């Protein structure tokens, strides 16, 4: 696999995969580095994958917050 990838594009791709598979999302929550390595096929030192993992966590948290806000809108 080409290691010269667009971080934002990779985050978007992995977030979509994780959101569509609850089991995969649980794996990511328990061991994000190994899950990212599995999904990308990239085996790098943990510290080199941290920016990718951080981006995914941020995007998932934002999506979760957005879903919760939508739920609140329905109450009013």
List the helices and strands and how they pair.
Layout: H1 7-20, H2 22-30, H3 32-40, H4 46-75
Please name the defining characteristics of this protein.
76 residues, mainly alpha
H/E element sequence: HHHH
Give the radius of gyration: 14 Å
| Number of distinct helices | 4
Q: Structural class of the helix and strand makeup?
A: mainly alpha
pLDDT averaged residue by residue:
83
> How many individual β-strands?
0
- End-to-end separation in angstroms reads 49 Å
- Provide the β-strand percentage band: under 5%
Shape: elongated
Query: Percent of residues in helical segments?
Result: over 70%
- Oligomeric state of the chains present here: single chain
Low-confidence stretches: none
Q: Main beta sheet, described? A: none
Please explain how this structure is put together.
This protein is mainly alpha-helical and 76 residues long. The chain has 4 helices and no strands. The protein has helices at 7-20, 22-30, 32-40, 46-75. 12% of the residues are buried.
Outline:
With 76 residues, the protein is mainly alpha-helical. It is 82% helix and 0% strand. It starts with 6 loop residues before the first helix and ends with a helix.
């Amino acid at each position: 696999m080409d290691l010269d990838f667009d971080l934002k594009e990779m985050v978007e791709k992995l977030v979509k995969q994780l959101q569509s598979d609850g089991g995969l999302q649980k794996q990511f929550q328990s061991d994000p580095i190994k899950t990212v390595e599995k999904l990308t096929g990239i085996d790098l030192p943990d510290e080199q994958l941290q920016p990718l993992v951080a981006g995914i966590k941020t995007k998932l948290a934002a999506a979760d917050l957005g879903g919760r806000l939508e739920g609140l809108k329905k109450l009013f």
